[in-house]
Structure to design on (478 residues):
C-alpha cells in the first residue's frame, strides 16, 4: 500500500520527540543494528560476489530524493526501431547477503525500511544499503539487470534479467530532472523516460489500473501557527514509477509462466469502500459522477490542488488488503493485483524491502533456465508472512505519525468549531463515526446524540487534540 509520509520544513519540533519515541517503543521499531550484524556487513562490503558480465558501458543514472543514499534502481532507455529498450539495474543484495547469515536473519526480523520525520530505520545496515550495495554514482556495483523491450504503444513485449556489473553516471534528483526536461536540456535517455512513462500511464488508464500519486504532507510553521500542506509529486516521479511497475509486471509474467514465484495480490474493493470514498470526495468538494470508475476518478485528480491531494491520500484505502501470494508447481487461483488490473510482483527495491531478494532470485533462475535456489524454495512460504506483518507495522507507524501531527496542528484550538462531512458511521453505534473537515486535511472521531448523517455536511466542535495520545475528537453541533 502506498505510504503517506509527513515531513517538516524545518527541524522536528521538540514537542513531537517524546511522542515519536513512544510510537517506536509501542510498535517495537528496531533501534541500532546488533554488533554482529554490523561486523558481517563490513565483511560483506569488502567481499561481494561479483558477476562475470560487465555492462558498465550502459549510461545509467539514478533518480531519487536529494537526501537518499539507499539507491536501489538505475535506469537507461534507448530507442529500438519504433519502440524502446529499457535497461533497469536493481541493486543485487544477494551479492552481499547469504541465507542464514547475521544480515539475512536481521533483515527477516525487520522486513522493510521504516520512515519517520526524524529518522529512517533501514532494512539493511547502512554499510551496505547506503554504501557497498547502493548504486552510487561513479561506483561499479553488482546488479540484477533487467532488459525490457517495449513497443510503440508502451506495451512490454520481451524481458530478460541477469546479473551484471553496472556503473551509475550520476545521482539525479526529481526536481533537477524535471527542470531539465521542461527546459529541453535533458539527455536522450531521460527524454525517453518521459515518452515511455506517458505511454505506460495511458496503458494503465486503458486497463483500468490505479497508481496513486501520493502527495507527501509537509508541516509549515508560520507566525506561531502550523499548517499542513501537501507536496504534489512531479510528473517525472510518475514516469519513473512506471518503469518500476513495468518491471514488476514483467517479473510477475515470468513467474506465472514458470509456475513459481511470489506475487503482490489484492482482491477487488467492495461497495462500502466506494461509499466511504464518495463521502470523502463530497467533504472535499470534489464531484464523482455516477458511473465513473475508481481509475477514471483518480486519474482525473490533480495532486497540485490541495483538496485533490487530500483525496489521493484518502484513496490509499484502496490498497488495504494487499498481500503476497507464494506459489510453486502451479499458478494461484487469484493472481491479480486489483488496483493494477494485472499480475504484479515487488522486485525493484531490495535494499528497502525483503521480498524483492526472493523474487529477483526466482526471475534470474527462470531467465537462465536454471533451478531456483533451494533456500528460496525452503523459505517461500515464510516470506509472505514476514511481509504482511511488517506491512501492518509500517501502516501503524505511518498512521500514528500522521495522527500525532494532526493532533499537533489543532492542539491549541480545542473548543473551536469546524465545517465537515460525515464520511463513516459505526454500524453498531450509529451515533459514532468519522468526520472529514472541509478546511483542513484532517479526519477525526465524532459523536452525536442521534444517528450521524452519513455523507452530509455538518458543524462539529473540537473536543480533544492530544499529541501524546495521537487523538483528535469532535462532537456534532448540527
Amino acid at each position: 500500500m502506498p505510504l503517506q509520509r509527513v515531513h517538516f520544513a524545518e527541524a522536528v519540533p521538540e514537542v513531537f520527540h517524546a511522542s515519536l519515541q513512544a510510537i517506536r517503543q509501542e510498535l517495537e521499531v528496531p533501534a541500532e543494528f546488533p554488533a554482529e550484524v554490523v561486523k558481517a556487513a563490513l565483511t560483506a562490503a569488502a567481499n561481494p560476489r561479483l558477476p562475470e558480465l560487465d555492462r558498465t558501458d550502459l549510461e545509467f543514472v539514478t533518480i531519487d530524493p536529494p537526501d537518499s543514499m539507499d539507491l536501489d534502481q538505475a535506469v537507461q532507455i534507448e530507442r529500438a526501431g519504433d519502440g524502446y529498450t529499457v535497461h533497469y539495474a536493481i541493486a543485487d543484495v544477494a551479492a552481499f547477503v547469504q541465507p542464514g547469515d547475521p544480515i539475512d536473519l536481521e533483515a527477516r526480523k525487520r522486513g522493510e525500511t521504516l520512515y519517520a520525520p526524524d529518522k529512517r530505520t533501514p532494512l539493511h545496515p547502512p554499510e551496505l544499503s547506503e554504501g557497498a550495495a547502493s548504486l552510487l554514482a561513479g561506483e561499479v556495483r553488482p546488479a540484477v539487470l533487467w532488459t525490457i523491450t517495449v513497443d510503440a504503444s508502451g506495451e512490454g513485449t520481451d524481458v530478460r534479467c541477469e546479473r551484471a556489473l553496472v556503473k551509475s553516471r550520476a545521482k539525479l534528483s526529481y526536481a533537477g530532472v524535471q527542470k531539465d526536461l521542461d527546459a529541453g536540456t535533458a539527455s536522450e535517455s531521460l527524454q525517453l523516460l518521459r515518452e515511455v512513462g506517458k505511454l505506460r500511464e495511458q496503458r494503465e488508464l486503458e486497463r483500468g489500473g490505479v497508481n496513486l500519486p501520493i502527495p507527501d504532507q509537509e508541516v509549515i510553521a508560520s507566525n506561531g501557527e502550523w499548517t499542513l500542506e501537501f507536496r504534489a509529486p512531479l510528473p517525472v516521479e510518475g514516469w519513473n514509477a512506471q518503469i518500476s511497475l513495468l518491471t514488476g509486471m514483467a517479473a510477475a509474467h515470468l513467474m506465472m509462466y514458470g509456475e513459481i514465484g511470489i506475487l503482490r495480490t489484492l482482491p477487488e474493493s467492495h461497495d462500502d469502500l466506494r461509499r466511504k470514498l464518495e463521502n470523502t470526495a463530497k467533504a472535499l468538494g470534489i464531484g464523482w459522477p455516477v458511473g465513473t470508475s475508481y481509475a477514471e476518478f483518480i486519474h482525473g485528480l490533480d495532486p497540485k490542488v490541495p483538496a485533490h491531494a487530500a483525496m489521493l491520500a484518502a484513496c490509499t484505502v484502496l490498497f488495504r488488503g494487499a498481500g503476497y501470494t507464494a506459489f510453486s508447481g502451479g499458478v494461484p487461483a487469484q493472481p491479480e493485483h486489483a488496483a493494477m488490473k494485472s499480475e504484479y510482483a515487488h522486485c525493484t527495491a531490495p535494499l528497502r524491502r525483503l521480498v524483492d531478494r526472493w523474487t529477483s532470485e526466482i526471475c534470474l533462475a527462470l531467465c537462465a533456465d536454471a533451478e531456483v535456489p533451494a533456500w528460496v524454495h525452503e523459505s517461500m512460504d515464510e516470506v509472505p508472512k514476514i511481509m504482511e506483518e511488517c506491512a501492518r507495522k509500517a501502516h501503524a507507524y505511518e498512521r500514528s505519525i500522521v495522527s500525532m501531527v494532526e493532533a499537533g496542528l489543532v492542539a491549541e484550538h480545542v473548543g473551536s468549531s469546524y465545517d465537515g462531512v460525515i464520511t463513516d458511521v459505526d454500524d453498531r453505534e450509529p451515533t459514532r463515526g468519522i468526520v472529514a473537515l472541509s478546511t483542513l486535511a484532517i479526519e477525526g472521531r465524532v459523536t452525536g446524540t442521534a444517528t450521524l448523517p452519513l455523507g452530509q455536511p455538518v458543524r462539529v466542535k473540537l473536543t480533544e487534540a492530544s499529541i501524546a495520545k495521537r487523538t483528535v475528537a469532535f462532537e456534532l453541533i448540527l
